[in-house]
Amino acid sequence: MLPIALFALQAAAAPLATDIYLADLRVAQGRVSIGAPVNVTARPGYDNQPSFLPDGRAFLYTSVREDSQADIYRYDIDQKTSVRLTTTRESEYSPTPLPDGTGFSVVRVEADSTQRLWAFDLDGSRPRLVLDSIKPVGYHAWADARTLVLFVLGSPATLQIVDAASPSGRGEVIARDIGRSLQPVPGHPSVSFVQRDSAAGPWLDELDVRTHRISQLVKAPAGADFFVWTRAGIVLTASGTKLLQWDPRRGSEWEEVADFAAAGLTIITRPPVSQKGDRLAIVAVPAAR
Questions:
Q1: What global pTM score does this model have?
Q2: Which 3 state secondary structure label does DSSP give 262?
Q3: What residues contact residue 39 under an 8 Å CB cut-off, 6+ apart?
Q4: What percent of the chain is predicted at pLDDT more than 90?
Q5: What is the pLDDT of residues 79-106, one digit of tens each?
Q6: Alpha-carbon distance 161 to 164, whole Å?
Q7: Closest CA to 73 of 101, 53, 100, 55
Q8: Considering all CA atoms of the chain, what is the largest pairwise distance in Å, rounded to the nearest integer?
Q9: Gap between the Cα atoms of 143 and 209, Å rounded
Q10: Residue 173 clears pLDDT 80, i.e. is over it
Q11: Cis omega (within 30 of 0) on the bond before 272?
């Protein structure tokens, strides 16, 4: 069986027809509320992996078009337009803004199928290798200006931490058998991830990137895969057509925020939040086009 992370990286071969929706997000008294979702990439094919730029006026995403090539696009929220940023023979996935705001990093599937971390300028120019020796990379997150946390494919997949500015660029294995979701925790030098356990089931954990200490947070709900944090410190995830929240300060269980079935959304997979905390992007399979 292929590692689960290869699902996204095989999109060009067998793309899932996903669209990206935008919705307003508000947090009041520890409760998240979501406005009506609007489909902003309504077309046949694979549009996925949105990541908001720091100013919140646009997001980057992966798209597979008629040429069956996975490239990075930018969607301008005010202009309601998409612009293609990469046009390469390789495939690029998981666009993530660089900490200094000068560009974005991607997982690139190279000509020989090697998966490594690369970076581009904001306009899609000047491709350069970020990490030479760590492969195959499935997913990544910037914990700070130079610290990367990686999901590295293997049996099992490993969580690795690496100093991107180090000449060696070697990763340190911190955990094994992890999920795909890696997300910086607002206001903390840490990244959350999913630790899988055959007996206890999957749990959302937090890795302190300075001390390398891991803290167990909350049991993951059934069907949940990706987890994101709001500026208010609330965790959001999706299960089926439902958006759920967990507030660590309240010590509550997972609570339903919204059910998007009535809006025609099925199989919600990713709910990233803008850095300003005012918008939510939702990746879903439309019930009908």
A1: 0.92
A2: helix
A3: 19, 20, 21, 286
A4: 84
A5: 999 999 999 999 999 999 999 999 999 9
A6: 9
A7: 53
A8: 52
A9: 7
A10: yes
A11: no
